[in-house]
Fold this protein.
Amino acid sequence: DIQMTQSPSSLSASVGDRITITCRASRDITNYLNWYQQKPGKAPTLLIYDASTLETGVPSRFSGSGSGTDFTLTISSLQPEDVATYYCQHFDILPRTFGQGTKVEIK
Amino acid sequence: QVQLQESGPRLVKPSQTLSLTCTVAGGSISGGGYYWSWIRQSAGKRLEWLGRINTSGSTFYNPSLQSRVTMSVDTSKNQFSLNLRSVTAADTAIYYCARGDLYFDPWGQGALVTVSS
């Protein structure tokens, strides 16, 4: 299986801050990487697919980048509604695996 | 828009079989050639992909489940199902159904299943 490792596990930032979450794959997955947002008590929702393509309706303050083994999710200006846990997920091979999540809070 | 809803017993005894059904609303389960997946989330919050099925019945199961899992599909009811045999407390989790197997979208709201005697 491909191991997905996210960092940090949690972060606290102020409204308007730029934040970055990192996801590292245990082997090259080209751009076969998705990001999800999970708000408290809710199911995850697709945020970004193919490493950098925003899902329809996702605010432009979200962006994704990377290829190979290293990927990032950036929120350019953190908003209160962005409080959530963010997960990366690869789709290079079966089985699909997820990162352990990064919990984002407002300071 | 397509919506998914999990249903089934929320309490299962150890060694028994966990059975859940996902009903697809707002579209045909046979439309679009999608795979349909099951994903679970334990209390530790890690997401684990359990496997996928398509409407032809083609499946792939996560090897981590060691052959305890079976998935099926009923296109006449617009549903697909999960059976997990010989459950233990470690199988206590929120179980989600989702469309797709490259990316998962949308997801059901989730069903918390507790394994306890």
Q: What stands out?
A: Chain B has a mean pLDDT of 96.
